[in-house]
Amino acid sequence: MPLDRPDLRGLPTRARKTRAFPVEKMIDFTRRRMIGAMAAAGAQMSLPARGQSPGPAPKFGFDEVLQRAQALARAPFEDATPKLPDPFDSLDYDSWRDIRFKRDHALFSNLNGGFRLETFHLGFLYRRAVTVNTIRDGIAAPIPYSPALFDYGRVKVEKTPAVNTGFAGFRLHFPVNDPHVHDEAISFLGASYFRFLGRDQQYGLSARALCVEAGTSKETFPFFREFWVETPAAGSNRATIYALLDSEAATGAYRFDLTVGQESALDVQGTLFPRRAGVKLGLAPLTSMYLTGENDRRVRDGFRDELHDSDGLLIHNGSEEWLWRPLGNPPRERMSSFLDRNLRGFGLLQRDRTFESYQDLDLAYQNRPSYFVEPKGEWGDGRVELIELPTADETNDNIVASWTPAAPPEAGKPFAYAYRITAGLDMPRLAPNGRVAHTFEAPARALGSSEPNDPGHRRFLVDFSGGDLAYYVADPSQVEAVATTSTGRVLRASVSANEHIQGLRAIFDVAVKPGETADLRLFLRATGRTLTETWTYPWSAPSAT
Length: 545
Prior knowledge:
By secondary structure, this protein is mostly beta strands. The longest helix is centred in the N-terminal third of the chain and has 13 residues, at 62-74. A hairpin with a 5-residue loop joins β18 (312-316) and β19 (322-326). The chain is globular. It folds into 2 domains: 88-424, Beta-galactosidase, Chain A, domain 5, CATH 2.70.98; 435-540, Immunoglobulin-like. The chain contains 4 helices and 33 strands. It has helices spanning 31-40, 62-74, 93-97, 355-358, and strands spanning 100-101, 116-120, 131-136, 139-142, 150-151, 169-178, 181-189, 193-196, 206-208, 210-212, 223-230, 238-246, 250-259, 264-274, 281-288, 290-292, 307-308, 312-316, 322-326, 334-341, 345-349, 370-376, 381-388, 399-405, 415-424, 435-443, 457-465, 480-485, 489-498, 503-511, 517-526, 529-530, 534-540.
């Protein structure tokens, strides 16, 4: 998919059997209402004494967004749904996508070789208007809507849209891959979703500012009401964005500092103001798609053997252990929790970078970025939560991973946190020992045996490569496969050389009672030294018939 064309993924676009993802509702939140909310919260402006000249106006920054978020939290939550003017209220995806911002109207284009700002038009699912401001010399000013900013393509506009139509979101372009070509570097579009890229990457998964009650029937989608974009320095690869978030559960002030490069990094600073207590909040959520792959072939898709934006969840826990959890497309919603204290990082990764796995000339799944989240400071007790939803096609994002604090933030009290997301391809610094390269399942039979297939028995084949594993290819007998299961038993385990990846293949069989689910774990070690990350996987034995 071209870098300058937005797609639908990263958005809740269809109802599922286990829960429904609501279509976005538009908000007409005016500055007058914001001023009223601040007044109700006791916000006052300090005026100069008579005869004194006013001092210089304060520069707009994160503190200003904090004040607005706190005032908004004290006001009643409102989410009105006015109708979009024709024809934008009834656009389908292809028609909406045909409305393009005119490149020669991009903001910041006078800054040599640097960022350029474009806005998205309202329409299709993107029905909530947001205000997009720019900041220059400390002064914030909204970007006024004008039909002259857009080429409407096939969309027939019989009358000029109202000047207060607003925008659906915005994106920044930058010479990511070529000094002479401005590619899309980051975009904010829909709810609190955002995506960004590094070099040689193509959009796949998305990030969100916050998720609320994910994996439950009470899930809601916080959204950004307003953005402020600092005018970047000429030629700089750094951009700063502020955002005001709102929802029925909490409001929030966010600062995003983007650094574009081979591996682009986004530093996120957030402060939440919960409106009520006891809400399950997911911090630093990531959203992706997994339809089919080597370890889960429940759904097949024509000529493509694999089809996913991410193939695994990687966790670096507070005990310095690296965990790899292959993703799946389960027949029903599946939730996995990884308890931890002072998490060091987690992310959704695309490890398979081989074109032959996907055979897709247009979508290039082998170039989808991995996102890895690293907390700044200590996040305390909590859990990484992974939600896998069933999907029948690739248009649905069915994977969500986030950090949930053990104790929900208190109502009315600010809750501050910070983290960095890195967008990369291989990112060798992650899991520096041997990594999981492949996961396969098969019926469990002893080699050369004619024993009948027991549906409660299963064989797993896990390939590891990297780290110091190439050293043991000549003599894999020195390496032990440490396999465990939370229920049932491990029948047998062995290690063999896999010269094709200059690594090792571990094979182990498990026996689990019908209808039970086992949490499996596996890693390799030699002479008491751990050689690999820990592979972890849930497997459910078929129910007895």
